[in-house]
């Protein structure tokens, strides 16, 4: 347990070089104040107001380029996600198990664990076209070498910036007048000699025509080779020894009735529903496995076999370790900015950005079938002894078989590619009005993002089922049993034993034109903002910022005909041959069944923000009021309103400032939620008369969705460079965020129950009283759920010149910490209960997330700098809703299952780095992350998947990086 006293005493709760705000909301001030004429107006992203001396109430952490250089990551995204307030972000080590999510390889930020959808990410205060159908941006597509500051606003900012800023805002601010040439070259790899990578970045800027014309160019290339799948069995990637087949073993109903817990975490788990090359799972031949050449042998079951798992035994067919730990990842970015100074105070500019981010990974080896294959006794590939035993022991002539399909020649591999084209035309500057100086910025943006997800070496389920059902024809040749399948090109395959699969059979069940999703996203924005002094108040100038914005977003997505439906046209994959054995409604692939869809919306909005000083006294200090209001009108979701009311008080106590803010923030439904393409499955539901009715479950978007609305409250205390500690900064902020009308999906039975309960909104999606074959339920998202998160943020920094002790250089101790008190999710559906996510280590919100940093700069005649940092997350539980017990357990329910041990350990990582200046223009640096090579904590699952949570734990291991920076 980390308490405030420890945090304050140590003065080290931070990331490497991450700066706490000084009173003027800029990065921490240097030891020697700059001359008065050098002090400039700075706009920090928690507010649209740019005024000297303005202290905004919304907590904001600023990271300079120097701070980011010390972290020495190949991608700024990786540095930001280590911030304690950033929880739930996605990156190249997350979702490596996923084939169909669409977010693989997407570097998207999430604040407060509220999800990437509720964090607004900006570039120079401007929106960026989404890289996914949900509209979230990809930080890897940003021009990162030119970033001179990143502002992380850890509070609601919708009134200032619009929709999606419920959790906060992350604003990347570039050096718009960069002059000279600079480059960054780096390379690295892990202790295990994998995930090798290299980064090359260069930027050039120069002024022409008496410096009125300014041109900036930058280019970036970064490649990380990833950590490949080691294949089947209980093995670790690249020689890692920590993988131990974790699983969540479920006890039987009889065991639970006798007082045993429902779940138990085990290691060295063996799934008993399949083996590496086939296993009979029922009847008198149960336990017969197939080995070399298809030879049957008795499968070696482990001990303590309960449900689907044993402990120990034959684990050679385990697929959990086959998931990549990190994706093969490549980013390429080209950026330019050209500006023309109309005069000393006004400029027009155009920026262009092209970026392409590609990933590749394997979600799992083979394609495990868990005892659900029906194999007939006359199957031509069965060994004679097994066929005879089947004929005599299975009256139905059918036995169940499970297999990991380890005979497949290749693992499933997924290849997402995201390509962005973005152009901005803008103007900014100053003008005089009513004897006052006003500032303005206006821009028009057009952005396009094309996302292509290609899945390779994956099987079509119907073809696989036809191919394994093999018989001998009249000529003694092995063929597919189904005549229709044979006519459509079916080639039989042998799944019994380690026999190499025949190429014709593999090409039939896994055609080269695998699942494909092609998405085109477009964003157009026109925005204008003005700020300045409205009037002189008795306590200081009253400042105002106001503006308006129009935005249109549109997307279209096409899946391949086998996934989206054979009757659906796809301009990107016309070569799919017709196959009458496949379902015309799609969903034929083992995974990766992408569907078609399209939609668009536009929004008009206007805002005003005021800063009103109302106290200026030598006795009582200084205080100001910050208020804002934004009105929005969506073509789909209708009207929405966001507002903010905040205040800061510079107390008469030396260096002590108080701040508080309350805001109403919004998130409008995205295009995917509104217009998701329809998919259809057959289901059964119960009506309120106790009858079971067959229905079509039609999964579809909901154009009637309304915006989510959040109430965001925070209160903070800031101690900034008091006279008794000139280089010390400390802040503590309490936050409380309640989100209503949360968009969440319901299952068909929940919708039917709500409809019979009188909810007319849901009834419009239910039709179950018609003739057989006509009943359906639209499985949609609705505004029923709610979220509630609250906690405390700590931030501190202290700098000391070591010359006071007769030593060279200066030492900086800095820190950030977040204490998550609650993270409650309520589905809002009768019969369900809220769940607590704080401290649930299978999620993204530990109770404590802390960064500590100590750096010593100016060593070796000012040339050497060293920094040491620590990252810590506290221990927690597997799930807060689980009841821990060993014997005499209460009745296990769906909402509150029982578990033998609900504890999950935390993690502590140490990083070490340094830099050396060979000259004023050239410096070298190194960085070692996870210095102790701390192994990740295993997170058991019920399906024997990888069993990791890379959102919290480092799954890569010790990583080395070296590089050189040049600036001319």
TrEMBL record:
Residues 56-169 form the TonB-dependent receptor plug domain. It is found in: Cell outer membrane. It comes from the Bacteria. InterPro entries: Beta-barrel_TonB, Beta-barrel_TonB_sf, Plug_dom, Plug_dom_sf, TonB-dep_rcpt-like, TonB_rcpt_CS. A motif (TonB C-terminal box) lies at residues 951-968. Pfam families: Plug, TonB_dep_Rec_b-barrel. This is TonB-dependent receptor. It comes from Duganella lactea.
